[in-house]
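Box 4.2: Ligand-aware structure prediction
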Amino acid sequence: MSDSHLDSPTMQIVSEFMQEPELMLECINLSKVYAEGPAEVQVLDGLNLRVYAGERIAIVGASGSGKTTLLNLLGGLDLPSEGTVMIAGMNLASLDETQRGQMRNRNLGFVYQFHHLLGEFTALENVCMPLLIAGTDVPSATKRGAAMLERVGLGHRMQHKPSELSGGERQRVAIARALVTEPRCVLLDEPTGNLDRHTAHEIHALMSELNEQLDTSFIVVTHDEEFASTLDRVLQLRNGKLELVAGPTKKGGAAVEQGEPPHAD
Ligand SMILES: Nc1ncnc2c1ncn2[C@@H]1O[C@H](COP(=O)(O)OP(=O)(O)OP(=O)(O)O)[C@@H](O)[C@H]1O
Ligand SMILES: [Mg+2]
């Protein structure tokens, strides 16, 4: 076989397909025990997870099963009792508070279950905040923030403060704030729980668009089974561990084809 044959477009596609997909996030043997209350609560118990760049994962599970706890650990907002979280090749435990904040700002977007907007700032200022923290100048941040608010259907509410917005509108501001920096991985905790069907569909479409255009990874806690079934893998949190419910397709599928057992990690 000549070298020129190896350089052919077909071979390039084949070799791209054969490449190990880029690991975005990994947790190894993750455990979380809450010890502050009257009794110890073991929420996560030796959980493993690998998320590849561009993969979209749904996390489902009963109330109290630990979904928010898991997202907080993945985002470095809380520390595990045991185990390791790696984001873009960095071990979170090796970073101090400031470095963890920088890592979050560079790589992650976060949509909290209870949106946590800053009450004294307008919708636009809230959305621009992560860009300003990252050092973007005010005119560029304002332009990008306004464009993202338009995309979530809130172009007419930019100057409203959170207390002047409906629950669903606040949630959409929080989504715009998480996406505005075009992070590599977005963690969302029931992002469309408060939204009507039509608006929820628009947010899901926006997520698909970013996924296709920028290869953004999404890890979404959701009770919306129809939406979950459109993602690459559905994982259920039960007894402190993740179990595969559906998938994998796409990037996760490539990993499985290369010899990984078809379980959650
Ligand atoms: N700071 C804390 N101290 C003690 N226990 C906690 C703490 N935070 C959460 N828990 C307990 O850990 C368990 C998991 O909570 P978590 O918020 O992760 O659940 P969840 O799956 O997100 O539930 P939901 O679907 O209701 O949002 C719950 O039983 C909760 O009571
Ligand atoms: Mg929760």
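In the box above, the bound molecule is magnesium ion. The pocket of adenosine-5'-triphosphate (ligand 1) is lined by residues 34, 36-37, 41, 43, 61, 63-69, 113 (CB under 6 Å).
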